[in-house]
Amino acid sequence: xxxxxxxxxxxSRWTRDPVIDEGQAVVVYPTDRDIEIFKLLTRxxxxxxxxxxxxxxxxxxxxNRRLNLLSRNPNLYLxxxxxxxxxxxxxxxxxxxxxxxxxxxxLRERDLSIPPKTYHRNFAHQLMVAQITASIELGTKENTRxxxxxxxxxxxxxxxxxxxRESQTPASxxxxxxxxGEQHDVNLTADAHPFGLERNIDAKHTYLFxxxxxxxxxxxxxxxxxxxxxxIAKKFAAYTAVAEQRIYHSYFGFPNFFVPMITTANTxxxxxxxxxxxxxxxxxxxxxxxxxxxxxxxxxKPPSVGGHMLTEPWHRVGHSPxxxxx
Length: 326
Hints:
The chain is α+β, with helices and mostly antiparallel strands.
């Protein structure tokens, strides 16, 4: 009889079947490092394992083994969203994770705030938002000259008007704007929460503030004849009105205001920039910042995981590129 210990049975990366070792399902309990991963996934809804590794470090191979166990029965602290299989290279890409209910329960037991989990119809868009915000956060971790000012810190600040802090929807700015002679009243809400950057340059502190980001997967038109339909042109008009009416200051208390516009392809970005140039009669704008992040379904190689959203220049129309870190 062969008494040699059996190796754990390898399961498909797409199932939640348990990992079996010596005939038993492998059970794990959250470590301090696991808790940091759970907290990370409350800030950024979906993240591939290479992004998670950029935050927590250690052995990448060991991390992947741990994430695998955390997402399988009987543990189920994490989940692997099924939509990631839409990518043609899904079997070869780092797996994407999100916090599952059991992981959320662990954080709640530690009196940590957990945002409500909402259903998103466009997984690719939400993943893009998470990768962008994670890259910005990584950029601040990698550079001691810049500090991320988080949304909770903004809400707690005395510079933020009381009415905004007490609002049921504090991240949404009410604005009235016109496009093609038609007036629109909207509550303008960016993708992701507002944030700021505190920069320490030559012992002087400067600040940049953002309403969030605008992540574009190319699913909405640049412009639309239907005045009720969402379009890039309407976003340009709405944010321009926010700047002209200084709503960013009266609503958030921000001293300045920049709008990051990230899309998935260079041709789309250039089309957006030409549209802005046309809408401003060639003047362009200092506040709109443009950059590319390939879609997860694209065959184009994505940038290396890291703080590139913060450390690499942003394109502008009519103005030189902007470096967020000098």
